[in-house]
Amino acid sequence: MTKEFLHSHFHLKDLGPVKYFLGMEFLTSKNGIYITQCKYALEIIDDARLLDATPNHTPMERGLKLSDKSNLLKDPGHFRRLVGRLIYLTVSRLDITYVVHVLSTPKASYRSSPSGCPIPKGCAWLRPVLLLKH
């Protein structure tokens, strides 16, 4: 009924059921529609150069404090882009919402760990996202 109504008012081309749109995969079954962002998460992991990293169930070390004495990021733009992509990923991954919030603070966006990882306090916080690839 909705398709007919839209066709009567607009010139449309029906491409069939949606499978992938704006970084989200849509799966349908008799129980309903499921939304996943597995492909999008893998793109983020690849962009962070962590495809070979080990997943971790703990998103962040306990009591994490970002220090003003840590090194400045070499490429803050890359970090901001990564955090922006992670914010979009929280649509389907509520377990990383707090970590992404902490990483999106102004202090985090300009600091890195002593190890030289372009991500504050190393890359361990991104490991829960790695669980999607297994």
Automatic annotation (TrEMBL):
Residues 3-61 form the Reverse transcriptase Ty1/copia-type domain. It comes from the Eukaryota. InterPro entries: RVT_2 (IPR013103). PANTHER family: CYSTEINE-RICH RLK (RECEPTOR-LIKE PROTEIN KINASE) 8, GAG-POL-RELATED RETROTRANSPOSON. This is Reverse transcriptase Ty1/copia-type domain-containing protein. The lineage of its organism: Eukaryota, Viridiplantae, Streptophyta, Embryophyta, Tracheophyta.
